[in-house]
């Protein structure tokens, strides 16, 4: 078992397979142009699998494939198949915006993918376009239906709540998820990266989200232990399912953070708000042994002290206040959420 300086175990690995995206969500990557990675900078499937084997031996038996938009990576089912054949891996999940999912859900399931989390911020085509700037809501909903039909469940829906944009749609999204049998997780808008122009004004906190839900959907907390999942979970009092809230800003959970991240260009990152990562690709491509890679990964994890969201909460309540632009951070499209 590998633990860091705050006694957090390494348990999960999030793998970003591309930094490209077919949407331009205003809260994540609003820019048309960006300094995208060149093809040769991106890890091959073999390189990813080699690192996953090493991470798995160190304790990360749960994988989440993400991006950018992971379905833009050519041959993704092939990668899933390679990952599924690694003995130590217990769970493989994909986070996607769903746009291309209807074409690949069956292949992904056959290859060994267990579950999908689909990002869906609105059921209103105009709000969808306002937030995503590209793409069509219809295509996402077709992707959701294809994932359900392919058995990629339990399906989770991720909804970033932004004040004045989609915060009046919480109840509608809850009804939709309840009817479909999905677990929806409302996510507080985070100041991840530097290009999304985050301000506290756009943030709808967990307290406010719960207060809005209680007006139409009576619920109670699920009291079982939260473990390392970031969502705090609730169930409807009538027994018809539940929902989660990810309160990264107002109630940080750094103490439970057991996730390592691998960027598409092979950097190991231990916090969503890191300014940089640790370059494993350079080691992979200069014939480092598995043992050397394993020692490098272990030393990054063991030396880890990050607790950005807890520190931000202190700064928000301080006299000086919090200035997100003062800190340089990696963008969400290279980290994968
Ligand atoms: N493109 C895929 C998608 O959208 O599902 C995977 C990558 S995306 C970066 C992963 C998750 O990060 C998504 O659920 C997205 O909603 C979330 N996300 C992106 N920017 C965010 C922000 N500023 N605050 C909170 N969540 C954010
Ligand atoms: Fe939106 Fe995901 Fe693309 Fe970010 S990576 S712009 S959240 S679809
Ligand atoms: Fe983990 Fe960093 Fe988020 Fe805290 S702020 S929960 S350390 S990723």
Descriptive notes:
By secondary structure, the protein is of the alpha/beta class. The protein has a single domain (12-334), classed as Alpha-Beta Barrel (TIM Barrel). It is 32% helix and 16% strand. The protein has 11 helices and 12 strands. It has helices spanning 45-58, 76-84, 101-111, 125-132, 137-150, 170-180, 206-216, 281-284, 290-302, 308-316, 332-335; strands at residues 12-16, 62-66, 91-96, 115-119, 156-161, 183-188, 219-221, 232-236, 242-246, 259-262, 267-269, 278-279. The protein has a 12-stranded mixed sheet with strand order 7-8-9-6-5-4-3-2-1-10-11-12. Strand 10 (259-262) and strand 11 form a beta hairpin. Helix 3 packs parallel to helix 5 (137-150). It starts with 11 loop residues before the first strand and ends with a helix. The site of S-adenosylmethionine (SAM) has 20 residues, from strand 3 and strand 5.
Number of helices: 11
Q: List the domain count as a whole number.
A: 1
Tally of strands: 12
CATH superfamily: Aldolase class I
Which class do the helix and strand fractions yield? alpha/beta
Strand order of the largest sheet: 7-8-9-6-5-4-3-2-1-10-11-12
Question: Ranges with pLDDT <50 over ≥5 residues?
Answer: none
Please give the alpha-carbon distance between the first and last residues: 24 Å
Topology, element by element:
Blueprint (H helix, E strand, L loop, with lengths): L11 E5 L28 H14 L3 E5 L9 H9 L6 E6 L4 H11 L3 E5 L5 H8 L4 H14 L5 E6 L8 H11 L2 E6 L17 H11 L2 E3 L10 E5 L5 E5 L12 E4 L4 E3 L8 E2 L1 H4 L5 H13 L5 H9 L15 H4 L2
Parallel strand pairs: 1-2, 1-10, 2-3, 3-4, 4-5, 5-6, 6-9
Antiparallel strand pairs: 7-8, 8-9, 10-11, 11-12
Helix pairs in contact: 1-9, 2-3, 3-5
One iron/sulfur cluster binds next to α10.
């Amino acid at each position: 078992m590998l633990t860091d300086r705050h006694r957090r175990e390494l348990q999960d690995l999030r793998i970003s397979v591309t930094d490209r995206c077919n949407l331009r969500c205003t809260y994540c990557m609003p820019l048309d142009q960006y300094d995208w990675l060149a093809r040769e900078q991106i890890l091959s499937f073999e390189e990813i699998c080699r690192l996953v084997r090493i991470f798995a031996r160190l304790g990360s038996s749960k994988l989440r494939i993400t991006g950018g938009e992971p379905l833009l990576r050519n041959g993704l089912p092939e990668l899933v198949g390679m990952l599924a054949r690694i003995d130590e891996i217990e769970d493989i999940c994909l986070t996607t915006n769903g746009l291309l999912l209807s074409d690949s859900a069956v292949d992904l399931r056959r290859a060994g993918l267990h579950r999908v989390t689909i990002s869906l911020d609105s059921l209103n085509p105009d709000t969808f376009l306002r937030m995503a700037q590209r793409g069509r809501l219809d295509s996402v909903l077709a992707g959701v239906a294809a994932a359900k039909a392919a058995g990629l469940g339990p399906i989770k829906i991720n909804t970033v709540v932004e004040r004045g944009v989609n915060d009046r749609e919480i109840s509608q999204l809850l009804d939709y998820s309840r009817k479909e049998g999905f677990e929806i997780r409302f996510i507080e808008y985070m100041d991840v990266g530097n290009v999304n122009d985050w301000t506290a004004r756009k943030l709808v906190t967990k307290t406010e989200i719960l207060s809005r839900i209680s007006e139409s959907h009576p619920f109670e907390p699920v009291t079982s232990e939260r473990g390392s999942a970031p969502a705090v979970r609730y169930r409807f009092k009538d027994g018809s399912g539940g929902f989660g809230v990810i309160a990264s800003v107002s109630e940080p959970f750094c103490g439970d953070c057991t996730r390592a991240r691998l960027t598409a260009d092979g950097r190991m990152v231990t916090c969503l708000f890191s300014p940089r990562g640790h370059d494993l690709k350079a080691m992979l491509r200069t014939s480092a042994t598995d043992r050397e890679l394993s020692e490098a990964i272990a030393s990054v994890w063991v030396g880890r002290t990050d607790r950005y969201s807890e520190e931000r909460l202190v700064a928000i309540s301080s006299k000086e206040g919090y200035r997100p632009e003062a800190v340089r951070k990696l963008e969400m499209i290279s980290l994968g959420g």
